[in-house]
Each structure stands twice: as C-alpha cells, then as structure tokens.
Design goal:
mainly beta
Length: about 400
C-alpha cells in the first residue's frame, strides 16, 4: 500500500530473461479499442495468414498469399502505432508454397523462421531468413507432408522448452507436430499426433492455444454455430486431449460466423477476440478462470460492417504497453489495425528497465504486469496489484 504520488521501486524477481517489459496501464475490459490505420498489401491476392515478430528492436509482419503462393514482409520499424514503412514481395521461397495459409514466426539462435501450412499440398514448410528477417536471402524446406487439409488452421506453441504446431481441421480433429524445441529438427512419425474426432463439434475453423498454471488449453471456433469450445491438454500437449468443454461461449457475435479468434491474458483476466465472416470484431471477458464455460452475454463489439467483412487472418500483438489487433481482409488484401485505449493514472505507462520507479496520481487498486522474454522470443507474464490510498505523499 502506498500514497498518491509516492515513488514506488519495483523489485524484479524473474530469472534467465533477456528483456523485460513493465505495463503500468493495464487496460480494463471497459476500455475500448480504436481504429489505428489501414493499408493495402499490393499484389497480395488472398492474404489468409499473418504473424508478427520483433528482431533487434524492429517490428516485422509476415503475410501469406493463398492464391499467389507468396510471402509478403511488412516492415514497421521500432513500433506498431503506424502503418508499415515498406511491404516487400518475397515470392514463392524455395518453390515450397501451394496455397499457404497459417503462418507462425519464431526466433532461435539469432535467426527468424516462418512455419507455414499449405492447404493445397497439405504440408508444413519452414522458411529460414538467412540474414535476418529484414534481409535479402530466404530458403524454404518442406518439413512434413500429409499434414492437415483444406480449411485447416494452425497455431504455433513456442516456449523456452518446447516448440510445437497445433492444427485444427474442419472435421474437429487436431494434428500436432513436436519439434522438441528445435525448429530445424527432422520430423518423423514419432513427432506426430492426431486426435480422434472431437464429439459434439463441427465445422471447426480455428484453434488458439494458451498456457496457464503449466497446463495447455486450446480454444476452438465453430464456424456454423458461432460457438467457442475449449480442449484441455494438461501439461503435455503430445499426451492428447484430456477434457472437452463444448460451449465456452454461445454465439455472442451478432449471429455471425467466426473466421478467426485470439486469446490474451490482460492483467488477471483472459480476453477472447473474434472476427466474423460478416465483418464483426468482438471481445469477450472470460474472467480470471481459464476453465470458465457457459458465457452467453457480455461481448463488446468494436468493429462492424462490410468494411471488415471476410476478415480472415487476425493477430493480437502487445508492444510498449499497447495492445494491437491486426487482421487482413480476404480478397481486398487490406490490413487493418486497432489498438487499445486504456486510461492511465501512472507516472509512466511502460518501462523496459529491470527495476523501474513509478507513482500513481489517483487512489485506487492498479494492476502491474511484468513480461519477461526468453532469447527465443517466447515470454511469460505475471500481474500483481498495488493499492494507492487517498493520502498524498509528502513533498
């Protein structure tokens, strides 16, 4: 407990981190998302996948082109608040693309790799950025054939100890590839798992993985019903599904069809973000319990209409305390960006110091989030609260 305007020295207890981010203005669920910018990926065709990564202080996005069989690189610079300064057509790297859709980026040993799923050839391919993601040279390799199908969507699981690809098919089966924390590993059948059909689910469109308390959970969008389900894997994804919750939320999305979902922990709560085929952008407060179910009210819409219809590829990214939602509209290849707009009573909203100083100007209870980053780009966050009294610190 501290007084208003009392200087607070934060003590950092994390280990083995290469970078720290402190967020002193954690957005509440009531805070809105505002339109940030839009830009066109010229020549992009049908951009159905996108992911973002920061290498050496510069933000990049990689978008797939489903019908052009290409990758596009978006260079943003030091922050994500403005449209990319350049968009580069990287072509069909190594000739490995055949209707590429989902993409996940990971950094290992100073190099960035893209793992991309092909709908056409039903394969997973690896793109290596030989001289950095912003460089001129890339190479492509097929790392696993007979993986997934048309309408499959994948999520990349990357932590300091594991690297896995988790893919959902439209028939409610899940396929998993285990790289054993080495993106260059030669995969065999021993690294592959396919689950039985998940009873009670249908026309499954997307899976989004999140870890809590050492256990993994997969949130699944059902296109036809508009409901969101969850599968629980416990600590080892490769041991298969242990429990299924068929209805985490009902169709809270204007009766629309979810094309893409993202889940993020903000402070002590989980937020689910959804973009529908009809152009609705929604967020749902899941609360502090990752195992919650039966939510049938309370979604907040922050984007609507034909401007955003056929939104397909979505990615939530946090940068310098701001939460950004990017998504690409199918057919028009337009990239849209929304950002959070939290109220803030802290002297600083964000810091990368290991042990920063901060004070608050108004009484209240404030969440403070520390995110520590591993050298491979994965991260772990913890949130604590500080109580600020009505008393003012002596000057």
């Amino acid at each position: 407990e501290i007084c208003q305007e009392e200087n607070l020295l934060i003590s950092n207890q994390s280990n083995n981190a290469v970078k720290y981010e402190w967020d002193f203005c954690v957005e509440s669920f009531a805070d809105g998302f505002i339109s940030n910018f839009s830009t066109t990926i010229t020549g992009g065709g049908r951009n159905l996948g996108i992911d973002f990564i920061n290498q050496n202080g510069v933000w990049y996005g990689i978008a797939t082109s489903f019908d052009k069989n290409k990758l596009f690189r978006l260079t943003f610079g030091a922050g994500l608040a403005s449209a990319p300064t350049s968009i580069t057509d990287l072509g069909n790297v190594g000739g490995v693309f055949n209707q590429p859709v989902s993409v996940g980026l990971v950094e290992q040993n100073g190099l960035v790799y893209a793992l991309v799923h092909n709908w056409g050839s039903k394969s997973l391919v690896r793109i290596k950025f030989e001289d950095g993601i912003g460089g001129l040279n890339q190479s492509g390799t097929v790392v696993y054939s007979s993986f997934g199908a048309s309408n499959s969507k994948m999520d990349l699981v990357s932590t300091p100890t594991e690297l896995r690809v988790v893919l959902i098919n439209s028939n409610a089966t899940i396929e998993i590839l285990d790289f054993q924390n080495d993106v260059n590993k030669e995969l065999t059948a021993a690294n592959y798992l396919k689950t039985p059909v998940i009873s009670g689910l249908g026309n499954t469109r997307e899976i989004e993985m999140i870890q809590e308390g050492g256990n993994w959970y997969g949130f699944i969008a059902q296109y036809t019903t508009g409901k969101i389900a969850r599968v629980d894997f416990e600590s080892d994804i490769m041991s298969g599904i242990k429990n299924v919750q068929l209805e985490v939320t009902g169709n809270l999305y204007g009766g629309g069809n979810p094309n893409n979902i993202e889940i993020i922990k903000s402070g002590d709560r989980y937020e689910l973000h959804v973009v529908t085929f009809q152009g609705g952008l929604y967020k749902v407060n899941l609360g502090s319990d990752i195992k919650i179910s039966g939510i049938n009210t309370g979604s907040v819409q922050y984007g609507a209409g034909t401007t955003y219809d056929q939104g397909y590829a979505m990615s939530l990214v946090k940068d310098k305390g701001e939460l950004y939602n990017f998504f690409v509209k199918d057919i028009t290849t337009t990239l849209y960006s929304f950002r959070s707009n939290p109220a803030c009573n802290a002297s600083i909203g964000y810091s990368e110091e290991e042990n920063p100083h901060v004070y608050f100007t108004q009484a209240g209870t404030y969440p403070i989030t520390l995110t520590a980053y591993h050298e491979n780009g994965s991260s772990s966050s913890i949130t604590k609260t500080v109580n600020v009294t009505n008393n003012k610190a002596p000057q």
